[in-house]
Write a structure and sequence with these properties.
The protein is built from 5 helices and 6 strands. The chain is of the alpha/beta class and 162 residues long.
Length: 162
């Protein structure tokens, strides 16, 4: 099974919005569209599981549009600063086939560490994604990092295809 961890696109600064209501910026929206166009072939997505925060929800729907509209499901355990064990427990019900998790930093980095069974610090940029293959979920053994896409690696790919 493949699990893709993805950080929401670039969001508006705090100010007029509460943290959970911050929208994506136009640049953030464009970055998610680029990532959808650069999505690696052979990475099927049966569903997208997202934090209820607006920036994550909007990211999930933009990605779904680029990937043929897999269903988007809101998972409350993906709200920021939820302990990793609680997030992984909340994801169990979605763990049939390959799926994308749209969430927040630093939670995604901690989840990546748990998926790899290692004490690593994988940092997710806004609009970045990493795919992991795991034998089972919940984990019985460490997973493998398959690929990593960052806004910096996606932009040249998008220019080349345009």
């Amino acid at each position: 099974m493949q699990i893709v961890l993805m950080r929401h696109g670039l969001a508006a600064h705090h100010g007029a919005w509460s943290d959970t209501e911050r929208p994506l910026t136009p640049e953030g929206e464009a970055g998610i569209v680029r990532l959808g166009r650069a999505w690696p072939h052979g990475t099927p997505v049966l569903r997208i599981v997202t934090s209820p925060a607006r920036r994550c929800h909007d990211t999930a729907h933009l990605l779904a549009a680029a990937l043929g509209q897999p269903p988007v499901v809101v998972e409350k355990s993906l709200l920021m600063e939820t302990p990793t064990a609680k997030i992984l427990a909340g994801l169990r019900k979605h763990a049939t086939g390959s799926f994308v998790v749209v969430g927040h930093a630093p939670d995604l980095g901690e989840m990546a560490s748990a998926l790899l069974g290692a004490d690593v610090a994988l940092r997710f940029a806004c609009g970045g994604a990493a795919a992991f293959t795991v034998e089972a979920f919940p984990l019985r053994q460490p997973g493998v990092l398959d690929w990593l896409l960052t806004p910096e690696t996606v932009a040249p790919l998008d220019r080349a295809s345009g």
